[in-house]
Specification:
Arc Repressor Mutant, subunit A, 229 residues, 6 strands, three-stranded antiparallel beta sheet
């Protein structure tokens, strides 16, 4: 969907998209909305076909910004920033194809993704250890997800639906949307999700810095289950 939107903008505006007055519209219509693996893949493939180097380079940097923002990592001018740390990085389209595939991996969060780019060997080894440890958890099948969702209480269901819609939210945003009294109420909802899930299954939600996030691997599956119920 967003690939078609971007393709139309490129067709009609071309390098005029580089102008400041068009960049805000571009961000609002396309890059602020890309959240799904399939959308990143289709837009990345489109960018590979563009003849204008300046336009392709600019749009590609915006796509990288959108991707890393999902993991609460700031990408700007060839640098990644997470917390107080930052790295200079070079990411070509083919490497980005591999990064997009990581969206299916439930163990990947902002910290893990960021330190994969680290020059510090110790940190990279620690990250690999985290990934290996997470492999012991089993995937959910559709019937298990259906049963899990069906057994949730109404407020917990609303909480899960909110995360499916937004992808990630801060506690304050959840409190405001669900009209909760305090952060303890949010923590209770998180605990309810975790408590109702078998211990050997992959996490459906997790904390990443200040955000509570849905596991992207199961986001669309749970969305489909809720729409059918």
């Amino acid at each position: 969907m967003y690939k078609d939107e971007l393709e139309m903008l490129v067709k009609f505006l071309g390098e005029d998209l580089l102008k400041e007055e068009n960049q805000k519209k571009l961000q609002e219509l396309v890059f602020s909305k890309i959240k799904r693996k399939e959308d990143f893949q289709s837009v990345n493939e489109l960018l590979k076909t563009l003849e204008s180097y300046d336009l392709r380079d600019f749009l590609y940097s915006k796509l990288l910004e959108s991707y890393f923002s999902i993991f609460n990592i700031i990408y700007e001018k060839g640098s990644l920033k997470y917390g107080d740390e930052n790295y200079k990085v070079t990411i070509d389209n083919e490497t980005f194809d591999s990064l997009i595939e990581l969206m299916d991996e439930s163990e990947i969060n902002g910290e893990i993704l960021f330190y994969l780019f680290s020059d510090d060997l110790k940190k990279r080894v620690e990250i690999i250890h985290q990934l290996i440890s997470g492999r012991s958890r089993k995937e959910w099948n559709e019937e298990e997800l259906k049963s899990f969702v069906k057994n949730l209480k109404p407020l917990t269901t609303s909480f899960l639906e909110l995360l499916i819609e937004k992808g990630k939210l801060k506690s304050e945003e959840i409190m405001e949307t669900l009209e909760l009294k305090n952060k303890k109420s949010v923590s209770a909802l998180v605990s309810a999700i975790i408590r109702n899930a078998p211990n050997d299954k992959e996490k459906l939600i997790f904390k990443d810095d200040d955000y509570i996030c849905i596991n992207e691997k199961y986001r669309s599956k749970i969305f489909e289950i809720r729409n059918k119920s």
